Amino acid sequence: MTGDVILEARNLVKHFGQSGWLNRNPVVQAVDDVSLEIRRGETFAIVGESGCGKSTLARLLMRLIQPTSGEVQFDGAPVSQAAGPALQDLRRDMQFIFQDPFSSLNPRMTVGKLVAEPLEVHAPDLPAAERQTKVAHLLRQVGLQPDHAGRYPHEFSGGQRQRIGIARALASGPKLIIGDEPVSALDVSVQAQVINLLGDLSRDLGLTLVIIAHDLGVIRHMSDRVAVMYLGRIVESGPTEQVFGAPRHPYTQALLASIPGNKVDQTAHATGEMPSPLAPPSGCRFHTRCPHARADCTTDQPKLKAAGHAAHQVACHHWQRIGKGVKAPGTAPRRPEAEARFELYRAASEGGIVTHKENLTERS
Ligand SMILES: Nc1ncnc2c1ncn2[C@@H]1O[C@H](COP(=O)(O)OP(=O)(O)OP(=O)(O)O)[C@@H](O)[C@H]1O
Ligand code: SF4
Ligand SMILES: [Mg+2]
Q1: What is the pLDDT of residue 325?
Q2: Protein residues with C-beta less than 5 angstroms from the ion ligand 3
Q3: 284 C-beta closer than 6 A to ligand 2
Q4: pLDDT tens digit string along 186-219?
Q5: Is 317 in the pocket of ligand 2 (CB under 6 A)?
Q6: Is the CB of 51 under 6 A from ligand 1?
Q7: Does ligand 2 have an atom closer than 6 angstroms to the CB of 302?
Q8: Which residue has the higher pLDDT, 258 or 166?
Q9: Distance of alpha carbon 82 from alpha carbon 62, whole angstroms
Q10: Mind listing the pLDDT tens digit for each residue in 325-351?
């Protein structure tokens, strides 16, 4: 991680729908005043409950949708104004990995054609023979065989299909890849392999990764920094070890408390469901579920501020009087499936022998 900023969002807002005195349709406040900085070479994670705005934020960062207000800068240039060649460069430099690799791969195209497609767009002058060599190299890079190029997506396992998706993302030579739940559709043992592959690629190619994931274990394992979202806003962010080791926001504490096996302070649990983004609560959006809420929480919206350590930020009026909530997360016994995943992580990161379930079930 070098530390210079590759992607920056300033006061991003995305509202879906319009309302006015002629049009009374409610507006979905999907992303509300989000600012963040992603550093070159780091793995940055975004976590939060379903519907909190993670995918909308990812789409805004990639300029797949336009913000209602706010600005995104990629490599120092504003993305909302990119057009013509600048927009094509942006499409080459920022790639996306989808949650469901099957639906994102055209079933009528061979793997060779699928991986060659981005090359045809971004390197149209590349001679056909060199393109084929490049496709073979990309397939090897993601742990597949060059002779897989002649097969169709349905002939592969879920993990292999995600590898094809990663090869496609790598084909244009991107600087940054955003993965929206890239492993959540995969079997647990295959998840570890794909995560390790992403980690290796990011290290070997100097790639910046932005990973959206529900699974806190995945995030803790692979990210350098993390942002926790609640109802369209970032409520806590910082180095992963700090946010997970000393969570300051009651919502982060509640997320960690929901991991079975963590030793939890009884005050760490949140109550009720996440309110609708059509009518977010006033003041602190978490106040309807927060066990620590006071009167000012219902009227004053807290801003992200340093929580003891400059890099660790929290949006809570009362973080200083709230304990850490979760005692020694990660040191408590885990569920067997989580333990199996961490065993795979450890074995892979220590260079040990990993039994890949995917290889056992792979079609030859
Ligand atoms: N095109 C759209 N039109 C209207 N509302 C939308 C649109 N896209 C997203 N939303 C709404 O915006 C909110 C945030 O959605 P988003 O998909 O970003 O959440 P998420 O955090 O990615 O959820 P999940 O974890 O389930 O994928 C939700 O309430 C969703 O219904
Ligand atoms: S500002 Fe108030 S309601 Fe919001 S998280 Fe902090 S204590 Fe809870
Ligand atoms: Mg999503």
Answers
A1: 56
A2: 55
A3: yes
A4: 888 788 889 889 989 998 999 999 999 877 877 8
A5: yes
A6: yes
A7: yes
A8: 166
A9: 11
A10: 544 333 333 445 444 544 554 444 444
177 and 145 Cβ atoms separated by less than 8 Å? no
- The pLDDT score that the predictor gives to residue 229 is 97
Instruction: Tell me the pTM.
Output: 0.86
Q: Which domains does the chain have, with CATH numbers?
A: 5-223 (3.40.50.300), 227-327 (no CATH)
Residue type, 254: A
Stretch among 88-97, 175-184, 258-267, 355-364 having the lowest mean pLDDT: 355-364
Q: Tell which one of 251, 286, 301 to mutate to probe ligand 2, the residue whose CB is within 8 A of the most ligand atoms.
A: 286
* Count of other CB atoms within 10 angstroms of residue 125: 5
Give nearest CA residue, ligand 1 atom 24: 50
What dihedral angle (degrees, nearest 10) is formed by the CA atoms of 193, 194, 197, 198? -150
